[in-house]
Amino acid sequence: MASSLKSSKELLVFLGKSMIAFLESLIFTIIPKPRKNVAGEIVLITGAGSGLGRLLALRFARLGSVLVLWDINKEGNEETCRMVREAGATRVYAYTCDCSQRENIYRVAEQTYKSFLPAMIANEHGHLVCISSSAGLVGVNKLADYCASKFAAFGFAESVFMETIVQKLKGIKTTIVCPFFIKTGMFEGCSTARPFLLPLLEPEYVADKIVDGILTDKVYLNVPKFISFMLFLKSILPVKMAVLTADYMGAFNVMDSFVGKNKKN
Fold this sequence. Notes:
By secondary structure, this protein is α/β, with parallel strands linked by helices. It contains nine helices and six strands, in the order αβαβαβααβαβαβαα. The protein has helices at 2-30, 51-62, 74-86, 102-109, 113-123, 144-166, 203-215, 226-236, 239-248, and strands spanning 42-46, 66-71, 92-96, 126-131, 172-179, 220-223. α2 (51-62) packs across α7. It is globular, with a radius of gyration of 21 Å. The mean pLDDT is 88. This is Short chain dehydrogenase/reductase family 16C member 5. It comes from Neovison vison. InterPro entries: NAD(P)-bd_dom_sf, SDR_fam. One of its GO terms (biological process) is retinol metabolic process. GO terms for molecular function: all-trans-retinol dehydrogenase (NAD+) activity.
């Protein structure tokens, strides 16, 4: 009897909280969610020497953030440093760092991803941003190694997010970004069969979406939103229908004309 009452109580609490969460989501769909102020906040950007990293640095510079720029390319990173100063940043720190080498990370900052979190926990303040990919949500033909790394990044970031939820660390936010292919040169030559649904993305557009997602504390950011619909179909359709859908979307041939940044010449 006591067990039954407990189960009923837990169900009612769950339904009540779910209704509140649904109404909150509905309200913020109609009314834009307030954007937080990041002026004076320390923003560490890896891969800041070019592409999406540089674009994000420029946007946070205009928002008044303190910028810490990491990149393996010293020249590119210093160029980004110059550009963000011209954009209005007053405190910028550029470091040459190969983030694939643990000793490099220790040398530059004496910290790793794992050691950022304890400081955030102590202050109950921070925002973790993971740049994954649509290839971290759905397997892609001829892209197994890249998909594996992006699935891992997504899983790691989501697991850390769940840990902050369980520990009730409301001041630590997470944003997991999963864009379709971006025109940064990494996927030079790749094509899309349905550009009206899944277009190749302009870097500036993606950077704007990421900054907006961070400022509004969005947890999952799929760019474009159609990716979310594709994930929904993947979860409910029979496998054969899901495969037919992927074929229609051109997912099997997206890499056929791939050139790659280092193979153009």
